[in-house]
Amino acid sequence: MPAGSLQQATIDLLGRAGWRVTPSRRSYFPTIDDAEIEPVLIRPQEMPRYVEAGSLDAGVCGRDWVIENDADVEEICALAYSKATVRPVRWVLAVPEDSPVKTPEDLAGKRVATEGVRIVREYFKKKGVDVEVEFSWGATEAKVPRFVDAIVDITETGSSLRANKLRIVDTVLESVTVLVASRAAASDGWKRAKIDTLAMMLEGAMVGREMVGLKLNAPAIGVEKVLACLKALRQPTVSPLSDKEWVAVETVMSESEVREIMPALKAAGAEGIIEYPLNKVIP
Q1: Which of 85, 114, 234, 230 minimizes the C-alpha distance to 172?
Q2: Which CATH architecture has domain 89-175?
Q3: From 3.30.70.100, 3.40.309.10, 3.40.190.10, 3.20.20.70, which CATH number describes the 7-85+177-187 domain?
Q4: Which residue in 10, 145, 153, 226 has the fewest CB atoms around it within 10 Å?
């Protein structure tokens, strides 16, 4: 499990997927209600190396750190969540607001600080731009312009960069959270089955975050008008009620769509509309 900024979001996602994880303030070994899993908290920056070496069977980290470590691991699935959003994070090239730099090429012969040295060197190599890339141990945004000419840092919303009066020049890389496994674990029958189950449940929990269940009653004679409001969905369930003049309709849909169709459902004669959250939706 990733320690640091992704830790709580990962614990919450595991909870929705069906695993109760309880961290300890003084231990890097959380408890989990599954005797077949032994969780350990590791910084995502170094997790791919431990998975590649087989010290860990599987891990949740950013795809960017797999690239940075050049780790030979198997990506089981992508999980589009981060600390604050469900969008991919971006590695961005940034300079002070008043910098004359407008393009990556303007940094030729300059110095760039970053935590992702391999990623940034490869980026400038592909562009044919010769720059000095130095490793940053943190507080990267504070290093321009006094110590370096530009930085490459991770951002979700860009708010921290704006607060530090930095301007984005280019996006170096987009990354999402991924579940990875060692080659040995992926080839082991029992471990692979367990990892695949974990992936299925986590993916279901990701889908469930964006979906809701919808139940309603509709006049049997005019039910087609109600179903027409749900035409983007596959076969909503329609069940008879004890009152033959009414039927029950149940479906699953995007939460953002419900607010758009609710007035139309009411106008079509739907009553007793219930919207409820979902933990998981398994395709």
Answers
A1: 114
A2: 3-Layer(aba) Sandwich (3.40)
A3: 3.40.190.10
A4: 145
CB half-sphere exposure, 90, CA atoms < 13 A: 16
Q: pLDDT grade, residue 158 (50/70/90)?
A: confident
- Given this model, what pLDDT does residue 83 score? 59
Each domain of the chain, given as residue ranges in start order, spans 7-85+177-187, 89-175, 211-277
Each residue of 102-144: pLDDT tens digit? 999 999 999 999 999 999 999 999 999 999 999 999 899 999 9
User: Phi first, then psi: what are they for 114, rounded to 5°?
Assistant: -165, 160
CA dihedral sign, ordered 55, 84, 15, 23? positive
pLDDT tens digits for range 165-203? 999 999 999 999 999 999 999 999 999 999 999 999 999
Buried b (16+ CB within 10 A) or exposed e, 209-234: bebbebebbbeeeebebbbebbeeee
Q: Record the tokens describing residue 243, joined without a space.
A: 């009152």
Both structure tokens of 263: 């007035």
Sheet with 111-114: strands ordered across: 132-135, 111-114, 150-155, 89-96, 166-175
